[in-house]
TrEMBL record:
This is Uncharacterized protein. Keywords: Signal. It comes from the Eukaryota. InterPro entries: 6-blade_b-propeller_TolB-like, Cueball_EGF_LRP_Nidogen, LDLR_classB_rpt. It comes from Patella caerulea (Rayed Mediterranean limpet). Residues 1-18 form the signal peptide. Transmembrane segments: none annotated. Gene3D superfamilies: TolB, C-terminal domain.
Length: 278
């Protein structure tokens, strides 16, 4: 069960598995956003096709909407999974990644120079980190109220208080790419610049280790959900999404496709349901 604070009340969100879990991907070669259920991964819904370099994607289970970035269109978009309520959330911005702050009812995003947040309700924009050159991916920790962003140019991952934006270096690592966070387990995961490894480190900056490694596959997309790391992988023959159990370190292939290149993945309960108490 996921507990979030919204508008001064506690919302208890029931988290299920299988058909109640949505998996979203952005894909570079086909230029599309795709959705499928964990219970039936072979049946995919091409939600939005003919996009312009879709990159970071995130999901809001409260309103059942997805938010994604399109650097080629310089915009952030949102819609329901059935393609309804499609709208432009923000435009004329060199956006790379987005993450939904569920309890804050906002979308946090990176552009080419800064990190900002935009209100889901009225689309008001405010800057969180004014100097974030090289930020290509961002994660939000709703428990400790921090953001983490990968600085591809500076070869570091930064940790910042939120929303104050006071930053320090979490770890120095060559060309960090896409990340995923486990707030409960207090670990951050990321793809190395070579795409050949998935690394992790404690949110306190200690206990760095290699989680996954391959000479044949390239790791690209990451997300964390319910004790598992979901990883987008591709090679010269196929693309696949793998589920990596961070405790047993066992890997299971969820789905396999030809000629694809996942940029990002979002795994989330489809709905935020339950009862609200004062």
């Amino acid at each position: 069960m996921l507990t979030v604070l919204i508008f001064g009340v506690l919302l208890y969100v029931t988290v299920s598995t299988g058909a109640d879990v949505v998996v979203l991907t952005t894909e570079n070669r086909q230029q599309e956003v795709t959705e499928f259920d964990l219970a039936n991964p072979s049946h995919k819904n091409r939600v939005h096709q003919h996009r312009k370099n879709p990159s970071g994607i995130s999901y809001d289970p409260v309103e059942e909407k997805m938010y994604w970035a399109e650097p080629g269109a310089k915009a952030i978009y949102s819609s329901k999974v059935d393609e309804s309520q499609h709208q432009t959330v923000h435009s004329n911005v060199n956006v790379y990644d987005v993450t939904v702050n569920i309890e804050g009812r906002e979308v946090i995003y990176t552009d080419s120079r800064s990190i900002s947040r935009i209100s889901i309700k009225d689309h008001h924009v405010s800057t969180v980190v004014s100097h974030a050159t090289g930020a290509i991916d961002i994660e939000y920790d709703p428990i400790d109220k921090h953001i983490y962003w990968s600085n591809f140019i500076g070869n570091v991952i930064e940790k910042c208080t939120y929303p104050a934006g006071q930053c320090s270096t979490l770890v120095k690592t060559p060309f960090p790419l896409n990340m995923a966070i486990d707030p409960k387990g207090k670990r951050l995961y990321w793809v190395s610049g070579s795409h050949e490894q998935v690394e992790s480190i404690g949110l306190d900056g200690h206990n760095q280790r290699t989680e996954m490694s391959s000479n044949d596959d390239m790791y690209t997309a990451l997300d964390f959900y319910d004790g598992n790391l979901y990883v987008g992988v591709h090679n010269s023959k196929q693309a696949k999404i793998e589920k990596y159990d961070v405790n047993s370190r066992h890997t299971t292939t969820i789905t396999t496709e030809d000629y694809r290149s996942y940029y990002d993945i979002a795994v989330s309960p489809k709905q935020g349901s339950g009862h609200i108490i004062g």
